[in-house]
């Protein structure tokens, strides 16, 4: 299962998640940070911190940013309970995952083309060496 890191940010300096958590998917990571933000909301208010200014930066195992979950979405999700509405962070996460997949596919295609070219050059070199012997 993939590992996700939930870096917490309140203001300028992020608090890095050093352990991470293994989850089945990006959607599962979204649900996990949503629940964590809900649990943290009242504690932040008790400390006189504005939770709307906090966010989680969700990163993959390579520490690449997948999506940002602003705590404001906790309130937004409470106010709008229509079943057709998808959270914006989930849409952004899906778009980011699709973009990453596209980059991986293109990189793989480029690698395979370069590998075929190297193999052809190696074959030609072997043929030339065989004729000289």
Strand-helix topology:
Blueprint (H helix, E strand, L loop, with lengths): L2 E8 L3 E2 L5 E2 L3 H21 L7 E6 L5 E6 L1 H8 L8 H45 L1
Antiparallel strand pairs: 1-2, 1-3, 1-4, 4-5
Give your account of this protein's structure:
It is a single chain. By secondary structure, the protein is an alpha+beta fold. The chain has one domain. Helix content is about 55%, strand content about 20%. The chain contains three helices and five strands; from the N terminus they run βββαββαα. Strands 1, 2, 3, 4 and 5 form a five-stranded antiparallel beta sheet that branches. A hairpin with a 5-residue loop joins β4 and β5. The longest helix has about 45 residues.
Shape: elongated
Query: What's the N-to-C terminus distance?
Result: 54 Å
Largest sheet: 5 strands, antiparallel
Radius of gyration: 23 Å
Strand content: 15-25%
As a percent range, the share of helical residues equals: 55-70%
Q: Work out the number of β strands.
A: 5
Number of helices: 3
Question: Mean pLDDT, rounded to whole units?
Answer: 85
Going by helix content, strand content and strand pairing, the class is: alpha+beta
**Helices and strands, in N-to-C order?**
EEEHEEHH
Count of individual domains: 1
Q: Which stretches are poorly predicted, pLDDT < 50 over at least 5 residues?
A: none
């Amino acid at each position: 299962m993939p590992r996700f890191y939930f870096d917490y940010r309140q203001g300028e300096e992020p608090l890095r998640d050093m352990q991470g958590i293994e989850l089945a998917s990006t959607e599962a990571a979204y649900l996990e940070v949503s629940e964590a933000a809900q649990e943290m909301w009242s504690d932040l208010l008790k400390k006189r911190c504005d939770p709307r200014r906090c966010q989680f930066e969700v990163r993959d195992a390579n520490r690449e940013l997948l999506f940002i979950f602003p705590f404001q979405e906790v309130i937004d999700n409470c106010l709008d309970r229509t079943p057709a509405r998808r959270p914006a962070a989930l849409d952004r996460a899906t778009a980011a995952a699709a973009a990453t997949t596209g980059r991986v596919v293109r990189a793989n295609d480029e690698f395979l083309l370069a590998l075929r070219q190297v193999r052809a050059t190696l074959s030609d070199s072997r043929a030339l060496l065989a004729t000289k012997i």
